[in-house]
Design brief:
- The structure is a single chain.
- The chain is built from eleven helices and seven strands.
- The protein has helices spanning about 5-15, 15-25, 45-50, 65-75, 110-120, 140-150, 155-160, 170-180, 200-205, 210, 220-230; strands at about 35-40, 60-65, 80-85, 95-100, 120-135, 185-195, 235-245.
- β4, α5 and β5 form a beta-alpha-beta unit.
- It is globular.
- It has about 250 residues and is α/β, with parallel strands linked by helices.
- The chain has a single domain (about 5-140, about 165-195, about 235-245), classed as Rossmann fold.
- The chain has a seven-stranded mixed beta sheet with strand order 3-2-1-4-5-7-6, sandwiched between helices.
Amino acid sequence: MARDWDATTYERVSAPLAAMGREVLDRLVLRGDETVLDGGCGTGKVTRALHERLPRGRVIAVDASPSMAGQARALLPPEVDVRCQDLTELQLDEPVDAILSTATFHWIADHDALFASLFAALAPGGRLVAQCGGHGNVAAVKEAGFALAEQEPFAEHLGDWAGDWNFATPEETHVRLGNAGFVDVWCWPQRVDLDPVDPAAYLGAICLGSFLERLPEHLHDAFVDGVLERLEDPLVLHYVRLNLLARRPF
């Protein structure tokens, strides 16, 4: 089951992720009349920028989280087609000209199924432009979270849970995209250091959300505070972003 999110807090604290996403959008050259899928739209910050670049086109915005899709539907212009769907099980009326995705693929366990689904969704010659968490992403946060998860009262609820992130390497991703049928594949890592304005809210809504959804609500603040105590102060998040460019053959 896909993780649901605290969409309200995410909308408030996710500006740094949106800034990264707009840089990825700049790699997608558009005439303005295409149909483009935003795969993992979140609350729609990057989707809005994409919509503005398609004055004669169409945007289909997809997110597996009901709260994210609901927030995006409320915030985006009504002509943006917002859907709550899993990217591994896309259901589209017709293929799209391009797929944009930012900060999403690392939440999907089966990348083979993901890339097969995206390939099927593209028209011949269609492009995939994406960025997600890569190998080594926010490693210190993960380490602190799992260390705290071994202690009571958290261990009772987290048990042997091993996490739900898929931080793949560029080499693994290149092979998987090729196996799915993509050509002109480029995959490369990018280091981004981020200083969140509200560390507790940022960690709770984004980096530690998968821990928190397995904990009773009265333990959420204590878990976030415990992780923060184990991290550098002031907090700097060390992101490793995995960039992807690929195309479906004509």
